[in-house]
Amino acid sequence: MLELLATRYAYVAFIVLLSVGLYMVIASENLVKKVVGVNLFQTAIFLFFVAAAYVDGGSSPVVPADPGGATEALASPLPHVIVLTAIVVGVALTAVGLALIVRIYTEYGTLREDVLREVRADD
């Protein structure tokens, strides 16, 4: 069991990041902490995609000079491209979320979700 954890440490980090991020989203009442939790969750998913795409002893999928001798394992660049695109989208969504949080704070004076629900129920 310890050998499996030692060789697959990226998956252990994935599980830890995913769990912490999910806990922060569910348990926290603060909106900023929820955004940080979503970012941790998102980072865990990125780590999972990159770790799953790893090919031991793989090389880049460039057309070799001798096509007949290409018997080695090739690593697919597609998961890495998807992760790069997701990082850009994640940064943009984080910026929009934080801008909305700033607007909510200037309007209501709090970032706690329970207080916001009470204030909105009174209006």
TrEMBL record:
<dbReference type="GO" id="GO:0016020">
    <property type="term" value="C:membrane"/>
</dbReference>
<feature type="transmembrane region" description="Helical">
    <location>
        <begin position="81"/>
        <end position="102"/>
    </location>
</feature>
<protein>
    <submittedName>
        <fullName>Cation:proton antiporter subunit C</fullName>
    </submittedName>
</protein>
<keyword id="KW-1133">Transmembrane helix</keyword>
<dbReference type="InterPro" id="IPR050601">
    <property type="entry name" value="CPA3_antiporter_subunitC"/>
</dbReference>
<keyword id="KW-0812">Transmembrane</keyword>
<feature type="transmembrane region" description="Helical">
    <location>
        <begin position="6"/>
        <end position="26"/>
    </location>
</feature>
<dbReference type="InterPro" id="IPR039428">
    <property type="entry name" value="NUOK/Mnh_C1-like"/>
</dbReference>
<keyword id="KW-0472">Membrane</keyword>
<dbReference type="Pfam" id="PF00420">
    <property type="entry name" value="Oxidored_q2"/>
</dbReference>
<feature type="transmembrane region" description="Helical">
    <location>
        <begin position="38"/>
        <end position="55"/>
    </location>
</feature>
